[in-house]
Write a structure and sequence with these properties.
The chain is of the alpha+beta class. The chain has one domain: Roll (HIV Type 1 Reverse Transcriptase, Chain A, domain 1), CATH 3.10.10.10. Helix content is 23%, strand content 13%. It is built from 5 helices and 5 strands, in the order αααβββααββ. The strands form 2 sheets. The chain has a 3-stranded antiparallel beta sheet, covered by helices on one side. The chain has a two-stranded antiparallel sheet with strand order 2-3. The longest helix is centred in the middle third of the chain and has 17 residues. The radius of gyration is 19 Å and the shape is globular.
Length: 180
Amino acid sequence: TKEIEVRSVSINNYAGRLKCFYEQWVTICDNPIVLDWLQGYKLPFIKIPVQPRAPHARAFQVSEGEQIKMEIDNLLDIGAIKSCEFCSGQFVSSIFLADKPNGKKRFILNLKQLNKFIKTCHFKMEDTRTAIRLFQKRDCAATIDLKDAYYLLPIHKDHRKFLRLEFSGVLYEFTCLPFG
């Protein structure tokens, strides 16, 4: 068995933190693709995205604007986004709020336009009914809530310019894999 060093990482600023554990990953994984992702995920483009013009800044109701500001402040606090300056070749996506089943709102980065430039692999998302059919007598199971798991994977610095949004006149970019 190999010893693995335990490292402490700030809980407050955890976006992209898998890169902090690269040396440990090397001891348990020899997959060059996974190890490359840990150093900064590169979006799998079919071709480099071109955006003739950024989406129009949407006018939000006061309550929506306040909630979006809270979400952006949270993303800044955890290091998932940072403010940035305009650069050539950037891609800015729109943002909005969507209803959640519990009546609250979910912050959405609308990557619909960017996704047109991304290679996709078809997969079927299984549900609990499929999992239950796989169980045999005396099997045990557990669940793990991977809340915000996307945020753990860092985005390569050269690809952050494709994951941008604008709010209240400020341009931001994701430093980690966003939902969308």
